[in-house]
């Protein structure tokens, strides 16, 4: 499974109904967390996210609504007895903020906390394992801020079950077929792998565009993504306010999604001034039909 | 009005039903906040606490469940347009933790944030105005930690309305009678103040005993208080665990309340291991009848 679960979609001031930004990306058996506003650890409980499976946390920038919940989450993971490493990626100053808060509490974490600084002006791959590759890219905000592209590689070839049966290959061998092996039959026939499988499906990508003003310069990072989250703090009648505050409108987010040719678009980071969110879809869909609201508790398949 | 509203009563790990420690003390028209765990600003919204009236925040110690919500609250107060000064009292390192988080976000608060360090080993009055006096005292915990005593002075004399009417004093003069003035009648009679008023009622006190192990040494700070909050992280069958972790049991809290001769006792800071809290009352009441659970959202009159 490759999916995104929304824990918070509000900007700046948390409200009772809308929490600050946080998203869990599930890639098969591991969980990544992107941003961690205040209360994210409670939201993970609310939506039955297994905190123990979390092993990578990505913080886009150091405005509080994107990271004030991080220290509490780290603290709780230790109290819950975690022993596996946890890696946090974020602007360099975040390390000091974490360290000082652990130090004054005389807290020694039960697990190893690895910190990977995101370097201003750079970008590129910051995490990679067999299944997942995460890269970051700069976006335009008031302070250094980054977007993330999560790519799920699919290395298993796709089995054609009727073909495998026709060649009388035992089901116990199917996983080796998916890994690309040929099958040697007892009667001497060598069943070539590509007679019974298809190439792996293409890689999939989720792109998270954190707080940013409208910037067509990021289109290359969005291109070809199956699912893109782009902030839309305001509706387009407040285009100037959005620009002044380095934020975007729903219309702008939809335009980028269209121009980048992505699959689907998630809108979020709504200003607290909007108590009703229907207007964001009304504005985005005429530009880009596959637009959705990043509603809290909802899981979107990539 | 002099009252305490509980925003959170859980220890260490927040759960969906129980939030980390935070309490709002209402003294007539001003609000004091004691401790500010993660999510306190949302809890203030949930229970309709007017955040704008908050002008003093007291942090007992720097374990996260007592202050991780502070930076988010400060940030939101500024975003909401606050202009009045806000004073924060806490261990000295708290100032650096606040400052660094404002700095990396390039945040300039719209109001003046005054920080008053609580000095280890000291104690005494830290805040005083016409109505309220707050003093702090050291308690025994793993790291420097303090309790707070909030005293409400009552300076207005108590009017005896029937007497004031009998002497034909106009109602417009009543507030001056409460302030202690005599009344000069047109017919030459001087109505002495103590003919129509009684002395002000005695001062009232609320005492907050933050995370602490059982320590009869704090009894002098509790003595004569109308209402005392004392942590009771565990039930008494875990007395040894409580001592090891510098926490208290419900039995110990009740014993202190009895020995100090206080009015009523609030129990809180319950370990997450207890899903049901009835046992705390069952343990405390036989020792000290006037024991109550610090239930979230409940307001207790001092």
Automatic annotation (TrEMBL), chains A, B:
Residues noted as binding Zn(2+) 1 in the record, renumbered to the chain: 61, 63, 141, 211
Co-factor note (free text): Binds 2 Zn(2+) ions.
Broad class of enzyme this protein falls into: hydrolase
Cofactor(s) in the UniProt record: Zn(2+)
Reaction(s) catalysed by this chain's protein: Endonucleolytic cleavage of RNA, removing extra 3' nucleotides from tRNA precursor, generating 3' termini of tRNAs. A 3'-hydroxy group is left at the tRNA terminus and a 5'-phosphoryl group is left at the trailer molecule
Keyword Membrane: no
Residues at the catalytic site: 65 (proton acceptor)
Residues annotated to bind Zn(2+) 2: 65-66, 211, 269
Documented EC number(s): 3.1.26.11
Pfam family of the protein (one): Anti-Pycsar_Apyc1
Gene Ontology MF terms: 3'-tRNA processing endoribonuclease activity; zinc ion binding
Description of how the protein assembles with itself and partners: Homodimer.
Homology family: Belongs to the RNase Z family.
Protein function: Zinc phosphodiesterase, which displays some tRNA 3'-processing endonuclease activity. Probably involved in tRNA maturation, by removing a 3'-trailer from precursor tRNA.
The protein, known as: Ribonuclease Z
Organism: Chitinophaga caeni
